[in-house]
Structure formats: structure tokens, C-alpha cells
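Before our next group meeting I need something from you. Please put the record directly below this note.
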Amino acid sequence: MNLPLLYIDPGTGSALFSILIGAAATLFFVGRALIIKLKVVLSGGKTTAITSHPYVIYNEGKQYWNVFKPVLEEFEKREIEILYLTSSEDDPVFDISWHFIKPEYIGEGNRAFAHLNILQARICLMTTPGLNVFQLKRSKMTAHYAHVLHAPTDATLYRLFGLDYFDSIYLTGGYQANDIRYLEQQRNLPEKKLLTAGCTYLDVYAEKIRTLPAEENHHFTVLVSPTWGPSALLSKYGEKLLDPLLKTNWRIIVRPHPQSLKSESAMLGKLFIKYGDAVFWDYERENIHSLVKADIMISDFSGIIFDFAFLCDNPIFYIIQDIDLRIYDADDLGDDAVEKLWQFKTIKEIGIELQENHFEQIDKHIKEAIKSESLKTARNKARMDAWQYPGEAGKRIADFMIETVNAQKA
């Protein structure tokens, strides 16, 4: 008798294989955790597990490499060993010969969380929010969890409860502390240590910009660099904006949000077919090459606005977006939360709102913005508020981590 053949299509087979691998990894780390607990019981409750790794950094993706790079360099310079866990197989950390930095790839998603949930450390630093909310749990064998804010924007624009269960937060500017303290009181949470460190990735970018050669025969340049979604700049205006910009004969750089390539490929494809080489398309991981070429930026509420304003000190045009805060911590700040947030108030101070009736005379509005001293003054104030201690963030974060561990030993 011929038995029927079981057929599994390649897509389903791949998914099943991924599930099996993830389950196997989870079982491995759960088993490892049980062994550790058994050893603790057999030793009468005494363990040195907490000292296995005094200092740990977890990086969820290589896009955050520049956040951690100055911190790692500081530990290397001080000859202090630190474990660097990453969910990126091609993390730039592996391209450098370190003596005191110990990099380790721990996989992505549940595989990484299974590893982190039994982490043995005195302090663990990460950019990943949502600790103890979903899959990423506080390990009972890790004494202190620190979160580093990786953008000079509001700390409450994480998804709900994003920072609630950390022990300390490293701020880019002191203004970020106010809303965190407000939420702690509203949610009856213990006060976290709030330490102003500065912004590591802006320090890295500032240094890189200083080494870039000056552009020969510079052509006046407009950088169109929005976020993504139906209310974002390219989706909302697209051709209506690009047509009058091209009439200026200026150089136009369009830098779509990375998510647009995944979620709005049809819209981008339509624009590319129409404009092709008439505009310069920037899909590079780092934005600094376009930033330094640009004399002005047109955006919406993308965080790149602050990169451009702080690093290049040039004017910005923005469009108003409909923002639903219900899934963010900021929604618990009370009525009129959008008006209270530093990020949205500051964009209005350092930029000019772009309206559709401006498009036909866009060149005139841009030339006026370039000359504006009041906008320049506002940019300088915003930079001082949000990017404190420029050039020192890596040193200050290393200091905070070492002080935390030393206090545990005292």
C-alpha cells in the first residue's frame, strides 16, 4: 500500500523551522536557569552569579551602534572588561579588535530575550524599552537596569510603560526628567535615578562631520527627509511639493524613512518613476552625508529634524501631522499632552510650518528662512537644552555605570 506523501510548502516549512529553533533556544536557556538555581540551593543559597559580568550592554540592532560606541571606547580606554550582547550578526563591534570589550551575538526576538531573562550582571545598559512589560523580563540575577535615551526628544514617546521598570535613565538633556517624574507619581512607581549624560550618537556624528572633506562647487541643496505613514510629508504632498522644488534648479535630495521602503513602496515607486535622476535619492543607513550637503530641510515630525538643527545649524520646514498619543506614555501626561511635549513645542520654535499655499513660492520662503536670526537663536537654545555635555556622553555614561557597581560593592 502506497502511503500519501506529506507536502509542506517552503513558506510554511521555513516558519515551522524558525519556531522549532526558537523553542529549542528557549528550552536551552530555561534549562540553564534551572541549573543555576539548583546550584544556589545546593550551596546553601550562596552564589557569585551576580558578579559573573559586572558590566553588560545589550544592543537590539546595529542601528544603535553609534549610541553604544563611545561607551565601549571609554571602557576599552580604562581597561575595564564589559560584555557586549547584540542581536545583530553584522554588528560593527565585530570589525574592531578589542582587548576589554567581549562581544557576543545572542540572536533576535525570543531567542535574545530568553538569554537576557537569565542574565547575570551587576548592571545592564540598553536602549530597548518595555522592560518587564512583555517578553523582556528583569533577570533576578541582574542587580541594576539602565536605559539610555538615544534621541534628544521626549522620554514619554515610548509605547506605554516603556521606562517604568528601569532603575536608572541616562538623559540627553535635563528637561526629559520632568515628564518621567510626573508618570512615576501618577503610576505610584519608585523614583528612578535620572542622570544627564548627553547624546552619544550626536557626539559620534559631530566627530564624523569634522572629518568629512568640504564639498567642491557646492550647489544650494534642499533635503526632503520625512517620517512615514499617511500623514507624513511624501504621502501627503509628494508631487505637489517636489514639482515646485525642481523648478528652482536647486539640488534636491529625497531621503525616505526606512519604513517607507517596506510599507509605502508603491508610493515611492511612483515618485521614482516620475523624477528618476532629477532628484538624488538617499537610502544610506547613516544620514550625515545628506545632512552636511543640505542648506535647508523639509520634514514633518521626524527625529532627523533635531540631527539637522543641532549638527548643521540650518533652517527647517515642517508639516503638521495628526498624532494619536493613546499608545504612548505621553497620553498619561493629561489634557493637551501634545502641546506640553518639548519635542512638538520646540519644532514650532526652530522651524517654519509648511502649508500647501507656500508651494508655488517655495524658493521665496526658503530664502527668507536662511536669513532668519530668530530661528538661529531658537536652534541654539534647543541644542543647549537637549544635547547637554557635547562630546562627553560616553565618558559620563561609563562613569555612571562604574559608580553604580561600586556602590553595590560598598
User: Anything to note?
Assistant: The chain is about 45% helix and 15% strand. The radius of gyration is 24 Å. Residues 58 and 126 are 5 Å apart (CA to CA).
